[in-house]
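User: I'm writing a short report section on ligand binding and want a predicted complex to refer to. Could you take this sequence and nicotinamide-adenine-dinucleotide and write out the structure as tokens? A short remark afterwards would be nice.
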Amino acid sequence: MRVIITGASGLIGTSLALRLLDEGHEVFGVDKSPNPWTERVPVRLEDLRQADEARVAAWGRGDVVVHLAARAKVHESVEHPANALDNYTITHHTLEYCRATGTPVIYGSSRETYGEQQTVPVPEDAVRIEEAASPYAAAKLADEALIRAYERCYSVPFIIFRFSNVYGRYDDLARNGRFVPLLCDRIPRGEPITIFGRDKTYDFTYIDDAIDGVVLGIQKLVSQTASVSGHAINLGYGEGTTLLEAALLVAQAAGVEPKITIGEKRTGEIGKYVADLTKARTLLGYAPKFPASRGIPLAYQWWREWHGPLGAPKADAAA
Ligand SMILES: NC(=O)c1ccc[n+]([C@@H]2O[C@H](COP(=O)([O-])OP(=O)(O)OC[C@H]3O[C@@H](n4cnc5c(N)ncnc54)[C@H](O)[C@@H]3O)[C@@H](O)[C@H]2O)c1
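Assistant: Sure. The structure tokens for the complex follow:
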């Protein structure tokens, strides 16, 4: 199989590309930045905000496109809403390739499309545009609608995966500023952490579970062995972990007492989310294996291996 991955230098793209290469598939990566983690992932440097008539020839034919390229920081989109518009444009240009070549697409959407829900776990049909809490969420909703329109108008098959707080190897503070890397960086060095929202609870998804789900989706979409096309599917672990619990897991793995302050929840952030995985289990046979209590210590272990022992100069290769 030849798999085209946009965002191939990112957290999910890197692990997905390596997994597919290990399984003997061909990977064609596209990203605006070189891959900072490994030289094994082939990456064509390209800014997908730009329309490009030569794109079809440059990418060649693929069995499927896994579209992961995006500006993925939610809070940053609140400060710079134009970032969200960029995400919509990037998706439009990726879909144009799929339309021209008839290639199926798998799209990396987000739990942010659900906004704030009163009850958890949250099933896929709970999405409501009225709940959009940030420009990032609004762009994810718009992207999902555009993908559905391309299926109706141009017969482009698709799966939409709604990820939730994916964490693990190949993420870094400098690049994404996400919560688990922040904990892994600060807590062992005795630096204070502020948690914005005491009860904030998320469904933390270890990278290997997320990749298992995407690979199952690729197999089923490409082989057409099951009618997965046209579905939005949650990929999570299916359990809620508070941010405080996540911080304590890192502190335990690092063997230190954390310095934690609790602040107010920030504009555009969701207070509680747990994925309903019924659809992922039924349609894909998805069976996540890493609760936060298992995955977060692994994420910390990778962090230490990548950055070296505490006190050593930082081996931070992030772009
Ligand atoms: N990681 C998560 O917890 C999570 C949760 C929900 C949704 N998602 C979505 O999944 C997808 C992948 O997430 P990730 O965690 O790997 O993000 P990431 O930030 O690690 O990777 C995204 C990649 O897209 C690239 N990119 C950004 N703008 C580009 C452009 N104009 N042209 C080409 N490449 C561009 C970046 O350079 C980066 O390598 C994103 O769409 C994200 O919104 C991720």
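A remark for your report: The chain has two domains: 2-164+206-235, 167-202+238-275+287-307. Residues 249 and 296 are 7 Å apart (CA to CA).
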